[in-house]
Amino acid sequence: MNMKFVKRGHYTAEELRDIHSGTAQQMDYLNKHIESMEQTYERHMPSGDHMLDEYSENSK
């Protein structure tokens, strides 16, 4: 039986700091990535029309 993934009820302060700083770094990375995707999308759609809006109008 593998005991590696047992959920512990308490962590040391240092372990919690490591966990939280890791999560914060991941969130920063994701936010930057999402922003760059949005900017790229807007550059490709200069008119401000979204593909979904166009699609729903054409399907009427």
Give a description of the structure.
This protein is an all-alpha fold and 60 residues long. It has one domain. It contains two helices and no strands. The protein has helices at 13-44, 51-58.
List the helices and strands and how they pair.
Blueprint: H1 13-44, H2 51-58
What's the tally of helices? 2
Which structural class should the secondary elements be placed in? mainly alpha
Helix percentage range: 55-70%
Report the span from N to C terminus: 59 Å
Strand content: under 5%
- The low-confidence runs, each spanning 5 or more residues with pLDDT under 50, are none
Q: What's the total number of strands?
A: 0
Broad shape: rod-shaped
Helix and strand succession?
Answer: HH
What does the largest sheet look like?
none
Could you tell me the mean pLDDT? Answer: 73
What's the Cα radius of gyration? Answer: 22 Å
Quickly count the domains: 1
Which descriptors apply to this entry?
60 residues; mainly alpha; 2 helices
Quick structural gist:
The chain has helices spanning 13-44, 51-58.
